[in-house]
Amino acid sequence: MTTKPEIDVVEQKENNQLRRSLSNRHVQLIAIGGAIGTGLFMGSGKSIHVAGPSIMVVYAIVGFMLYFVMRAMGELLLFNLNYKSFQDFAADILGAWAGFLVGWTYWLCWVVLGMADIIAIIDYWNFWVDSKAWSIVLAVAVMLVLLVMNLLSVRLFGELEFWFVIIKLLAIAALVVVAIVMIVTGFQHDGVSASVTHIWSHGGIFPTGFTGFIGGFQLAIFAFVGIELVGTTAAETKNPKVTLPKAINSIPVRVLLFYVVALAAIMCITPWDRVDPEHSPFVGLFNLIGLVAAASIMNFVVLTSAASSCNSGVYSTSRMLYGLSHKKMATRAFGKVSSHGVPWPGLILTVAMIVGSLVLTASGSVMRAFTIITTVSSVLFLCVWAIILACYIVYLRRFPEAHASSSYKMPGAKVMPWIVLAFFVFILVALTQDPDTAIAEAVTPIWFIALFIAWRRIRGRAVRDDAAAAAIIENTDGEKVS
User: Fold this and answer.
1) Do 200 and 53 touch, CB atoms closer than 8 A?
2) CA-CA distance, 18 to 11, in Å (whole number)?
3) Does residue 194 contact residue 182 with C-beta atoms inside 8 Å?
4) Span 184-211, pLDDT tens digits
5) What is the CA radius of gyration of the chain?
């Protein structure tokens, strides 16, 4: 017979746990949303201008390499279903210091990206609203809506992200369909007919040479930031053994369809050397066919894309703070969850910091510095991805029998992690070729110095995880999974 104190303990544990509320539909679309960043919509014009048609090769290479990061992450998450995210297996496999490093670094990555996104949202509202003050108010309103939706339940986050991604997919599909029609009908503009020959007839596939090709990697890495987002949903995913592999396996197809095909469609209509690097080529293509509402439609798309990025950031950072709290690497307050199983303190902190960044809009002189800070975030994401691979290398050596019996083995397990890590070193070298990104790399060590100091102060009380985090509560029937 269970005594009253024991019942209280069980209830307290369950009240502090995340719940498996995300369905296969949610996780699949969250994974797609992570692979389609605002870099595709807003940055594709600049990337085409820098690398020409070779940008398609760049995106294919980056997507190929990051696929193996995702496969490594997938095998590790399924190795132990008590892992709530990659932060957990980093702490378990490499040591508590790695969980501390990954958790706080990933938190900073998304907070900074959220700051960039909300400033972008203000610019998007400026398209419809003449008053900058009203644009700021509307941007804050967007953040408050995201906060409320996330606070109510994780399922609402999944639904919101589901529809955000649907909008992205419809925009890309519309672009490709319109481009095909223009090619078939021989559409002309500025004396140039739409044709697939534009991809190789304006200086070849590599018209800007090796320098331009390398420059494309700087932009492509930022476009893929967030691809690992599905790894933060592990504790709230129904049937992760089926859902996570399915989401990860579709990444190569997504990269081919959403990046390579979309970029090819743009360059078939407008030769790469005529693409305006300062504006979204998506808007430009629809304007060519005289669609009066094109600008407003695409402005809505990029606005929702930025809101989607903020939504992902708010979700993932709150889960990182939750994990840090249960390892005593952050204040215990971040380990609390609401009656709906939502880690609300982390949500509120993240939204407050993102909204607080609006003071930066008071002066235009800070924008270049803000661009550099955003680049720092991209460099930090490389660090997170590298630690995931390092965890996999150690796991492979320490638990060879687990790998041998895994139902989701990483292909090329002994070789590919090292190849991808070498590729990341290449990216870091490439980033030094641009003044702004070189500055970003130069200031990044400041963050790691700060983490080193903080770790020395708290490492004595840090743990792998507390007892309350040992079980995940199923949303459907309340049964614990161990």
Assistant:
1) yes
2) 13
3) yes
4) 988 887 778 888 999 998 889 999 998 8
5) 23
CA dihedral 159, 335, 224, 157 (to 10 degrees): 10
- For residue 435, give the amino acid letter: P
- Read off φ and ψ for residue 87, nearest 5 degrees: -65, -40
Lowest-confidence region among 26-30, 178-182, 313-317, 426-430: 26-30
Say if strands 480-481 and 472-474 run parallel, antiparallel, or are unpaired.
Answer: antiparallel
Q: Which pLDDT tens digit goes with each residue over 261-276?
A: 888 988 998 889 888 8
The model's pLDDT over 362-399, given as tens digits with 9 standing for 90+, comes to 555 445 555 566 677 788 889 999 999 999 999 999 99
- The residues pairing with 472 across neighbouring beta strands, listed in sequence order, are 481
Contact 22, 158 (CB under 8 A): yes
How high is the pLDDT of residue 188? Answer: 82
Instruction: Calculate the alpha carbon distances from 353 to 140, 246, 393 in Å.
Output: 12, 34, 35
pTM: 0.80
- Report CA-CA distances (Å) from 422 to 14, 84, 102, 337, 426: 43, 28, 20, 40, 6
List Cα–Cα distances, 405 to 52, 402, 410, in angstroms. 45, 5, 12
Q: Classify domain 18-481 by CATH architecture.
A: Up-down Bundle (1.20)
Q: Residue 143: name the closest of 364, 342, 378, 308 by CA.
A: 308
Beta bridge partners of 405: none
Mapping DSSP onto H, E and C, the string for the chain reads CCCHHHHHHHHHHHHCCCEECECHHHHHHHHHHHHCCHHHHHHHHHHHHHHHHHHHHHHHHHHHHHHHHHHHHHHHHHHCCCCCCHHHHHHHHCCHHHHHHHHHHHHHHHHHHHHHHHHHHHHHHHCCCCCHHHHHHHHHHHHHHHHHHHHHCHHHHHHHHHHHHHHHHHHHHHHHHHHHHHHHHCCEECCEECCHHHHCCCCCCCCCHHHHHHHHHHHHHHHHCCHHHHHHCHHHECCHHHHHHHHHHCHHHHHHHHHHHHHHHHHHHCCHHHCCCCCCHHHHHHHHCCCCCHHHHHHHHHHHHHHHHHHHHHHHHHHHHHHHHHCCCCCHHHHCCCCCCCCHHHHHHHHHHHHHHHHHHHCHHHHHHHHHHHHHHHHHHHHHHHHHHHHHHHHHHHCHHHHHHCCCCCCCCCCHHHHHHHHHHHHHHHHCCCHHHHHHHHHHHHHHHHHHHHHHHHCCCCCCCCHHHCCEEECCCCCEEC
